[in-house]
Protein backbone atom coordinates (compact mmCIF):
# COMPACT_ATOMS: atom_id res chain seq x y z
CA UNK A 1 0.00 0.00 0.00
CA UNK A 2 1.00 3.60 -0.52
CA UNK A 3 1.38 5.97 2.40
CA UNK A 4 -0.61 8.59 0.52
CA UNK A 5 -2.71 8.67 -2.63
CA UNK A 6 -4.37 11.82 -3.87
CA UNK A 7 -6.47 11.90 -7.02
CA UNK A 8 -8.03 14.94 -8.67
CA UNK A 9 -7.94 17.04 -5.53
CA UNK A 10 -9.57 20.45 -5.82
CA UNK A 11 -10.10 23.05 -3.14
CA UNK A 12 -12.17 26.15 -3.64
CA UNK A 13 -12.21 28.41 -0.58
CA UNK A 14 -15.29 30.34 0.45
CA UNK A 15 -15.25 33.44 -1.66
CA UNK A 16 -14.37 31.38 -4.72
CA UNK A 17 -10.57 31.21 -4.72
CA UNK A 18 -9.38 27.92 -6.24
CA UNK A 19 -6.30 26.99 -4.18
CA UNK A 20 -5.93 23.44 -5.56
CA UNK A 21 -6.75 22.81 -9.20
CA UNK A 22 -6.75 19.04 -9.52
CA UNK A 23 -3.79 17.48 -7.77
CA UNK A 24 -2.58 13.90 -8.21
CA UNK A 25 0.07 12.67 -5.82
CA UNK A 26 1.38 9.32 -4.61
CA UNK A 27 3.83 8.86 -1.76
CA UNK A 28 5.20 5.38 -1.14
CA UNK A 29 5.51 3.82 2.29
CA UNK A 30 8.90 4.65 3.82
CA UNK A 31 9.49 7.62 1.56
CA UNK A 32 10.82 10.99 2.64
CA UNK A 33 8.85 13.32 0.40
CA UNK A 34 9.05 17.08 -0.10
CA UNK A 35 6.24 19.23 -1.34
CA UNK A 36 8.16 22.23 -2.63
CA UNK A 37 6.69 25.49 -3.84
CA UNK A 38 6.54 29.24 -3.38
CA UNK A 39 4.32 30.96 -0.83
CA UNK A 40 0.68 30.69 -1.78
CA UNK A 41 1.19 27.63 -4.01
CA UNK A 42 -1.20 25.45 -2.01
CA UNK A 43 1.13 23.43 0.23
CA UNK A 44 -0.66 24.13 3.51
CA UNK A 45 -4.02 23.60 1.87
CA UNK A 46 -2.91 20.18 0.62
CA UNK A 47 -1.67 19.19 4.07
CA UNK A 48 -4.82 20.59 5.64
CA UNK A 49 -6.98 18.38 3.45
CA UNK A 50 -4.89 15.24 4.13
CA UNK A 51 -5.14 15.78 7.87
CA UNK A 52 -8.84 16.67 7.63
CA UNK A 53 -8.48 20.21 8.93
CA UNK A 54 -9.60 21.64 5.58
CA UNK A 55 -12.64 20.34 3.70
CA UNK A 56 -11.91 19.37 0.13
CA UNK A 57 -14.12 20.44 -2.74
CA UNK A 58 -13.49 17.44 -4.96
CA UNK A 59 -11.19 14.44 -5.31
CA UNK A 60 -9.98 11.39 -3.43
CA UNK A 61 -7.50 11.10 -0.60
CA UNK A 62 -6.32 7.93 1.11
CA UNK A 63 -3.64 7.30 3.72
CA UNK A 64 -2.28 3.77 4.06
CA UNK A 65 -5.38 2.65 2.22
CA UNK A 66 -7.84 4.45 4.49
CA UNK A 67 -10.22 6.72 2.63
CA UNK A 68 -10.70 10.27 3.89
CA UNK A 69 -14.44 10.26 3.20
CA UNK A 70 -15.38 6.86 4.57
CA UNK A 71 -12.63 5.85 7.04
CA UNK A 72 -11.70 9.12 8.68
CA UNK A 73 -10.97 7.83 12.18
CA UNK A 74 -8.61 5.16 10.85
CA UNK A 75 -7.00 7.64 8.50
CA UNK A 76 -6.36 10.11 11.33
CA UNK A 77 -4.61 7.48 13.43
CA UNK A 78 -2.01 7.01 10.68
CA UNK A 79 -1.01 10.67 10.72
CA UNK A 80 1.09 12.84 13.00
CA UNK A 81 0.84 16.50 12.07
CA UNK A 82 3.31 19.27 12.80
CA UNK A 83 1.55 22.46 11.75
CA UNK A 84 3.29 25.69 10.87
CA UNK A 85 1.81 27.80 13.65
CA UNK A 86 2.28 27.11 17.36
CA UNK A 87 -1.18 25.81 18.16
CA UNK A 88 -0.68 24.50 21.69
CA UNK A 89 -1.72 26.11 24.94
CA UNK A 90 1.31 28.23 25.90
CA UNK A 91 0.43 27.99 29.59
CA UNK A 92 0.55 24.21 29.77
CA UNK A 93 3.82 22.50 30.54
CA UNK A 94 5.86 20.79 27.87
CA UNK A 95 5.02 17.38 29.28
CA UNK A 96 1.30 18.14 29.61
CA UNK A 97 1.10 19.18 25.97
CA UNK A 98 2.66 15.93 24.80
CA UNK A 99 0.84 13.62 27.22
CA UNK A 100 -2.56 15.25 26.61
CA UNK A 101 -2.36 14.26 22.98
CA UNK A 102 -2.94 10.68 24.18
CA UNK A 103 -6.59 11.52 24.79
CA UNK A 104 -7.28 12.07 21.10
CA UNK A 105 -5.91 8.68 20.14
CA UNK A 106 -6.79 6.42 23.04
CA UNK A 107 -3.19 5.93 24.11
CA UNK A 108 -3.24 4.60 27.70
CA UNK A 109 -1.98 7.08 30.29
CA UNK A 110 1.03 5.08 31.43
CA UNK A 111 2.19 4.44 27.88
CA UNK A 112 1.69 8.12 27.09
CA UNK A 113 4.05 9.04 29.93
CA UNK A 114 6.67 6.52 28.77
CA UNK A 115 6.49 7.79 25.22
CA UNK A 116 6.57 11.44 26.20
CA UNK A 117 9.77 10.77 28.12
CA UNK A 118 11.25 8.95 25.13
CA UNK A 119 10.40 11.63 22.58
CA UNK A 120 11.16 14.61 24.81
CA UNK A 121 14.59 13.08 25.52
CA UNK A 122 15.23 12.39 21.84
CA UNK A 123 14.30 15.95 20.99
CA UNK A 124 16.36 17.54 23.76
CA UNK A 125 13.38 18.82 25.73
CA UNK A 126 13.36 16.56 28.76
CA UNK A 127 15.04 19.18 30.97
CA UNK A 128 12.20 21.56 30.04
CA UNK A 129 9.40 19.11 30.77
CA UNK A 130 7.90 21.07 33.67
CA UNK A 131 8.25 24.50 32.06
CA UNK A 132 5.25 26.22 30.51
CA UNK A 133 5.52 26.12 26.72
CA UNK A 134 5.65 29.91 26.52
CA UNK A 135 9.09 29.81 28.19
CA UNK A 136 10.57 27.87 25.24
CA UNK A 137 12.48 29.31 22.31
CA UNK A 138 10.93 29.11 18.85
CA UNK A 139 13.09 26.12 17.90
CA UNK A 140 12.13 24.30 21.09
CA UNK A 141 8.45 24.95 20.42
CA UNK A 142 8.85 23.42 17.00
CA UNK A 143 10.49 20.33 18.50
CA UNK A 144 7.72 20.16 21.08
CA UNK A 145 5.21 19.92 18.25
CA UNK A 146 7.22 17.05 16.76
CA UNK A 147 7.17 15.18 20.10
CA UNK A 148 3.41 15.78 20.36
CA UNK A 149 2.87 14.52 16.81
CA UNK A 150 4.79 11.30 17.53
CA UNK A 151 2.96 10.38 20.73
CA UNK A 152 0.50 8.00 19.07
CA UNK A 153 3.34 6.61 16.90
CA UNK A 154 1.83 7.47 13.51
CA UNK A 155 3.08 5.77 10.34
CA UNK A 156 3.06 9.07 8.46
CA UNK A 157 4.55 12.27 9.85
CA UNK A 158 3.54 15.46 8.05
CA UNK A 159 5.41 18.68 8.74
CA UNK A 160 4.41 22.07 7.38
CA UNK A 161 7.54 24.22 6.88
CA UNK A 162 9.25 22.60 9.89
CA UNK A 163 12.37 24.75 9.86
CA UNK A 164 10.88 28.14 8.98
CA UNK A 165 12.50 30.68 11.28
CA UNK A 166 14.82 28.08 12.83
CA UNK A 167 18.53 28.92 12.95
CA UNK A 168 20.99 26.89 10.91
CA UNK A 169 22.45 24.85 13.77
CA UNK A 170 19.08 23.72 15.05
CA UNK A 171 17.91 23.18 11.50
CA UNK A 172 20.73 20.65 11.00
CA UNK A 173 19.84 18.80 14.20
CA UNK A 174 16.17 18.69 13.19
CA UNK A 175 17.19 17.35 9.78
CA UNK A 176 19.29 14.66 11.47
CA UNK A 177 16.41 13.70 13.71
CA UNK A 178 13.93 13.44 10.85
CA UNK A 179 16.41 11.42 8.79
CA UNK A 180 16.88 9.04 11.72
CA UNK A 181 13.18 8.40 12.34
CA UNK A 182 12.61 7.97 8.60
CA UNK A 183 15.31 5.26 8.59
CA UNK A 184 13.48 3.60 11.46
CA UNK A 185 10.47 3.30 9.18
CA UNK A 186 8.21 6.33 9.49
CA UNK A 187 7.09 7.90 6.22
CA UNK A 188 7.66 11.65 6.16
CA UNK A 189 6.11 14.38 4.06
CA UNK A 190 7.22 17.94 4.55
CA UNK A 191 6.48 21.20 2.83
CA UNK A 192 9.20 23.68 2.21
CA UNK A 193 10.09 26.56 -0.01
CA UNK A 194 13.82 25.84 0.26
CA UNK A 195 15.19 23.57 -2.44
CA UNK A 196 18.18 23.02 -0.17
CA UNK A 197 15.98 21.49 2.52
CA UNK A 198 14.31 19.15 0.04
CA UNK A 199 17.68 18.26 -1.46
CA UNK A 200 19.32 17.48 1.88
CA UNK A 201 16.53 15.39 3.31
CA UNK A 202 14.19 13.97 0.78
CA UNK A 203 14.13 11.14 -1.73
CA UNK A 204 11.20 12.28 -3.83
CA UNK A 205 9.72 15.65 -4.52
CA UNK A 206 6.56 17.24 -5.82
CA UNK A 207 6.75 20.79 -7.02
CA UNK A 208 3.54 22.72 -6.59
CA UNK A 209 2.76 26.06 -8.14
CA UNK A 210 -0.52 27.97 -8.20
CA UNK A 211 -2.52 24.91 -7.14
CA UNK A 212 -1.01 22.45 -9.61
CA UNK A 213 1.73 19.83 -9.33
CA UNK A 214 4.17 20.89 -12.02
CA UNK A 215 6.81 18.23 -11.36
CA UNK A 216 6.84 14.92 -9.51
CA UNK A 217 10.20 13.23 -9.51
CA UNK A 218 13.14 11.99 -7.47
CA UNK A 219 15.60 14.47 -6.05
CA UNK A 220 18.38 12.76 -8.03
CA UNK A 221 16.59 13.30 -11.33
CA UNK A 222 15.65 16.84 -10.46
CA UNK A 223 19.25 17.77 -9.69
CA UNK A 224 20.54 16.37 -12.99
CA UNK A 225 17.97 18.52 -14.82
CA UNK A 226 19.06 21.77 -13.21
P1 LIG B 1 1.28 27.68 0.80
O1 LIG B 1 1.18 26.79 1.98
O2 LIG B 1 1.91 27.01 -0.38
O3 LIG B 1 1.93 28.99 1.10
P2 LIG B 1 -1.61 27.89 1.07
O4 LIG B 1 -2.13 26.52 0.87
O5 LIG B 1 -1.47 28.43 2.44
O6 LIG B 1 -0.21 28.03 0.31
O7 LIG B 1 -2.50 28.92 0.27
C1 LIG B 1 -2.83 28.72 -1.11
C2 LIG B 1 -3.70 29.86 -1.59
O8 LIG B 1 -4.98 29.77 -0.95
C3 LIG B 1 -3.15 31.23 -1.25
O9 LIG B 1 -3.41 32.09 -2.33
C4 LIG B 1 -3.94 31.64 -0.04
O10 LIG B 1 -4.05 33.03 0.04
C5 LIG B 1 -5.28 30.97 -0.26
N1 LIG B 1 -5.95 30.64 0.99
C6 LIG B 1 -5.42 29.92 2.01
N2 LIG B 1 -6.30 29.79 3.01
C7 LIG B 1 -7.42 30.44 2.62
C8 LIG B 1 -8.71 30.67 3.22
N3 LIG B 1 -9.02 30.19 4.43
N4 LIG B 1 -9.61 31.39 2.51
C9 LIG B 1 -9.31 31.86 1.29
N5 LIG B 1 -8.14 31.68 0.67
C10 LIG B 1 -7.18 30.97 1.33
P1 LIG C 1 -7.36 24.53 23.70
O1 LIG C 1 -8.01 25.01 22.43
O2 LIG C 1 -8.07 24.96 24.93
O3 LIG C 1 -5.90 24.81 23.74
P2 LIG C 1 -7.83 21.87 22.69
O4 LIG C 1 -8.32 20.70 23.48
O5 LIG C 1 -8.71 22.42 21.63
O6 LIG C 1 -7.45 22.95 23.77
O7 LIG C 1 -6.43 21.48 22.01
C1 LIG C 1 -5.32 21.07 22.72
C2 LIG C 1 -4.20 20.79 21.75
O8 LIG C 1 -4.43 19.60 20.99
C3 LIG C 1 -4.07 21.90 20.75
O9 LIG C 1 -2.71 22.16 20.56
C4 LIG C 1 -4.68 21.36 19.47
O10 LIG C 1 -4.01 21.82 18.32
C5 LIG C 1 -4.49 19.88 19.59
N1 LIG C 1 -5.67 19.21 19.04
C6 LIG C 1 -6.96 19.61 19.16
N2 LIG C 1 -7.79 18.75 18.55
C7 LIG C 1 -7.00 17.77 18.02
C8 LIG C 1 -7.27 16.58 17.29
N3 LIG C 1 -8.50 16.20 16.93
N4 LIG C 1 -6.22 15.81 16.92
C9 LIG C 1 -5.00 16.18 17.24
N5 LIG C 1 -4.67 17.28 17.94
C10 LIG C 1 -5.66 18.07 18.33
From TrEMBL:
Span of the entire protein shown here: 2 to 227 of 311
Entry keywords, A to Z: ATP-binding, Nucleotide-binding, Transport
Protein name, as recorded: ABC transporter
Ubl conjugation recorded as keyword: no
Domain ABC transporter: 4-226
Domain of life: Bacteria
Entry annotated with the keyword ATP-binding: yes
GO molecular function, one term: ATP hydrolysis activity
Amino acid sequence: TNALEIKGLRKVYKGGFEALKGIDLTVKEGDFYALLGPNGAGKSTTIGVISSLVNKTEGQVSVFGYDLDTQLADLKRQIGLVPQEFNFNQFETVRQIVVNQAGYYGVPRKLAHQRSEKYLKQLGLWDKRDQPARALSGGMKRRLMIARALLHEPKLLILDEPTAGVDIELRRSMWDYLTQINKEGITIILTTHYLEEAETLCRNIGIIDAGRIVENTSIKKLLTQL
